What we know:
This protein is α+β, with helices and mostly antiparallel strands. The chain has two domains: 4-185, no CATH class; 257-342, no CATH class. Helices cover 42% and strands 15% of the residues. The protein contains 14 helices and twelve strands.
Amino acid sequence: MSERTLTDRELNRALLARQLLLERRRLGVRPAVEKLCALQAQWPQSPYIALWTRLEGFRKQQLTRALERHDVVKATLFRITLHITSARDYPYYAAAVLPAARERTSGVTAEQLERLSQLVRAAAMSGPLTHEQVEALAATEMGQRWRTRTLTPLVHLPPGGTWSHYGRVQLRAMEAVLGVDLPAREDGAERLVRRYLSAFGPATQQDLLRFGGLRVGDIRAGLERVELRRFRDERGRVLLDLPDAPLPPGDTPAPVRFLPKWDSALLAYAPPERTRILPEKLRSVVIAKNGDVAPTVLVDGVVSAIWTIERRRLSIEPLRRLTRDDRAAIDDEGNRLVTFVSG
């Protein structure tokens, strides 16, 4: 039987539905983060705005409390960038992602990496560390300062990760904070495949690899364990998905939504596939050469403007022609965002 072909419009609505961008949902922080797979957290405010735009009645204190209770955690994870995940998912993600990132460190043997990993883990079990202290333990031998963050699962301790925290981060070993051990890599791969497709599917295998910064071998066990259905996109590429995951009709109405910097909805796919939400002609405007991703406005489910807030004033930079109704809807939603950010 040939696979069903999904239009770009249908893929857009599938993404919006799974990312809670068709309608706000009344969910707690932890289940919401699990549904979304992970929240980009490079900019402290991003996870807060990501949840505000997706959840009904969300308040900043909800995410702050969830971080303080370790219901969710902030850590270096996918693509060696900062994410917030649920505490239940983090050990599995770390089991799949961190070893793969370590193994791609050039010029360092497996024996060296294992010894350095044990060294950093022991220090982080004893008490909090800073990034500078981790680097002092391992950067010279690894030759790459940033890759020291892949040596062992390290969780940011609050107030790290909270709304206005820009100070030095305190890190602690995952085992010390969450009281759990690292699962097997195969179990991590299975959890990642399920969560990714639940949040971003249907998607190509390459999309999943790009999102995690992984190789095929890193997720093979997950792909083999998870029951999958297959589709094709309009360009003939094979798309993977979970059985019974939502696929709304392409004409499903989509409200205006504001996305924060680095929102995962824009980064969850290899570049050709981002067109389901980010038109190719706008990619270089929204995603800078240094990797910065602008805060954007979705109109009819597609990136259509860039937004900024300064001194409680919202500025909108249209990226395409907007109708009067579009501008009215943007202003209405934008005023609510200003109230949230300023409150």
